[in-house]
Each structure stands twice: as structure tokens, then as C-alpha cells.
Amino acid sequence: MAPARAGTAHPVRVVAWDLVFYLGCFAFALGTALASEFYGYRIWGNFAVAGYGLAAAHSAWLTISARRGMQTNGKFGSRWIGIGAVVVLAMCAPLLMLVIRRLTGTDWLITPFSWAAQPEVWVIERSADLLLRHGTPYVDLASLGRAPQVNDYTPYGPVMTVFGLPRALFGGNPVLNALTDARWMFALAAVLCAYASWRLLNRPRVPVFAAQLAIACPLTALTWAVAGPDLAIVGLLVLTFALAASDRPGWTGFVLALVISAKLIVAPAAAVLAVFVYRRARGENPWAATGRFAGALAATTIALHLPVYLANPAAFTEHVIRFPLGMGAVRSPAASPLPGHLITQFVPAGTAISLVLVGLAAVAMLIWLARRPPATGSAALTRTAVGLGALILLTPATRYGYLVYPLVLLGAALTFRDSGPTARPPRNGRADATSS
């Protein structure tokens, strides 16, 4: 829904949903503030309790007004007030505090109760420093002179290093260290990608429900404050779909290569985008458009990976391939109690069963793509959200924080759907049933 106009009343069920949503978020934030083992999470929880509490109070007022048939006049009657409270108090305020708190120096200690930034922030910043000094962002484990630890690993592609370069290049004193914290870079990338996507779609109306899924959800707000790389990556991923929806297959392949070369988890999106590009091809052979997409994707991916691989093939293989697959010298600590992990832990031959389920989900996704190829950006985003959600839920070792990917993609899908006639129709005319 758009912000309320003066003299209008919201439907009761709509504002009642807002109230339920913010109360659920409030409960999550309160539990995090009281029980999390991580210092940054607890700080976020304290701020987020205030943000979600204000959003819930505002939604309660709107709900009571709607039930009584009262009009909610002026800007204070807008449902966007709740989103604003979350952005200010549950995202920006805790991020600022944690960036300043980080200057006291608790990185790299095995003390989660003191971390002002999650390890991925330190690791990405270190990877940039290593790239500048050694030509590779990956630690050579053989040169450590000790047994490797989990934080010695950089389980990302070489593009992720870009977000740590400002600190590696300009850091060195408290002011510059605060200004170049990688979390600012992640946040900036996410915001710029969202804005660019919105512009590519000719500025569609953003539904409040879409903003709740993509922005106000606790997974997004928490990630924004304590870590951030997943928000930058999902922002870039949304941008690839906006490029595809505006019929730019070459640029779609190029940006997708950046995404995959930062974090491999989003690689399944390539299949959806290939089908979407083929379906939308306008004024040219659809195979030619798909070829431009695939060529840009392949060439850019090779160009980004090959120099880093050649600099130290063993380190590249250990960090980027073996560690995420659970085959490294140190096992990944990712062990959120999602279905795949629970099956692995408590069912005989659970790892094999979990991997079979992942394979079956992949086959189901391919069948869905083949039988109902997406003709709109909204449909393509929805398929990607479902596919990534299944992968995250069923893989043997993962983190619940990765669920931010399907949530943001679903929020984006709602906005893409509302872009309506501003997005050009597919090659065969208006979107039909295959796009649903």
C-alpha cells in the first residue's frame, strides 16, 4: 500500500497485519537482546526493541482507528511511519554505535560477547589487505605455522574483497577506521542497487508489505547493523533482475558475474535469469539474447577468478571450494537448526538424505522453469526466492541469516509486480499464465 492520504482510513485487516508483524519482530528483538551470545546482536536487540515497539504502537493506533471507522489524517496516518521507525532505530542507530564501539579493539578475539562486528566484516577487510600485499585475498594456511582456525578462512569469491578496500587503503586512525568500516560499504551498495533497480523499472510504487519483507524484517535489520555482506549481494542480485526486465541481457550477465564472484550461494539464479532473458528477448533471436547473457556471465566470471587462482591455486581451492563444501582443514561452524541440518544430525545417513533433498528441489525448480517460464521480473524473482529458500533450508550446514535472501527477493518481487505497464512486455506480447 502507498502512504495514506489525508482523510482516508486503512482497511482493518491491513493495519492489523502490520501490528502482528511488528509485534513478532519486537519479540524477536527482545529475545535477541536478552539471550544472544554476541555483543553486537544484543546491542542491536536493545535498539530494535525501541524501533519495533514504536512501529507496533503506531500500527495499534491505526488498527483501533480503522475499527472505529475513524480517519487517520496527515502524514502521521501513513503506514510508512513504522518502516521509518525501524530504519532509524533498528538499523542506522545500532550500526553507528557498533562502528564506534569497534574502535576499542575486539576483533579476532574468540569472545563473541565482545564483538562489535561479526567475523565476516573482519575477514573481508583482511582479504582486501592481503590482496594488496600478496595478490590474493586468501590466507596461505600452510604458512601460518600453526593449526588453522575458522577465522583464517575467507569463504567468498574475489569480488567480495572490494568492500574491504576502503579500509585497507585509507584506514589507520580512529576516524578513518570508523568511516571505512566495511559495513558502510555493504549498506551503500545495497541502497544504491535498490535505487538503481527502482529507476530501471521507471519508479514503481513500493508496497508497504514489500518494504516490510525486504527492509523491516529482523533478518535484514540485524544483518545491516552487525555484518552486511548478504545485503550488498542480494541488492546486486535484485539489480540483475531489473536489468533483465529492462532488456539488457549483456549487462545482466555482467552484474550476475559480479554477484556470483562475491558469493557462490546465489549461483542458482543464473538458471532463472537465462530462462527469463530468453523469454523476454525483443527485436532479436531469443538465442542471441541468451548468448549475450551467457557470454558476459562466463567471460566476466573467468576474468575475475583466474588471476586470483593463478596467484595461489591451493589457497583459492581451500577457501572458495573445499571449506564451503565441508571438505577443508577446518569445518564450517554454520549449524543453524534448519531442516537440512536437523536431518543431518538426527537421521541415519542424514547428510546423504539432505543432499538428495537438495537435488530433488533443484530438479523441481528446473521442471517449474521449463513448464512455466517466467515472463516478468516479479515471476523470475519469485522463482529465485523459492529456489534459494529451498537450498538454504535443506543443505546440511547453513545459517538462518541466509534466509534474508528469499525475504528480500520476495519483497522485490512485489515491487516489480507493481511496476505494471512501466516494464516492457515479453517478446510474445503481454505476460500470460506462464509468468505466475
UniProtKB/TrEMBL annotation:
Cell inner membrane recorded as keyword: no
UniProt xrefs under InterPro entries: GT87
Descriptive protein name: Glycosyltransferase 87 family protein
One Pfam short name: GT87
Subcellular location: Cell membrane
Keywords: Cell membrane, Membrane, Transferase, Transmembrane, Transmembrane helix
Source superkingdom: Bacteria
Membrane-topology annotation of the record: Multi-pass membrane protein
Keyword Cell membrane attributed: yes
Listed transmembrane segments: 12-31, 43-64, 76-100, 182-201, 213-245, 251-278, 290-310, 346-369
Provenance organism: Amycolatopsis albidoflavus
Coiled coil regions, renumbered to chain: none
Family: Belongs to the glycosyltransferase 87 family.
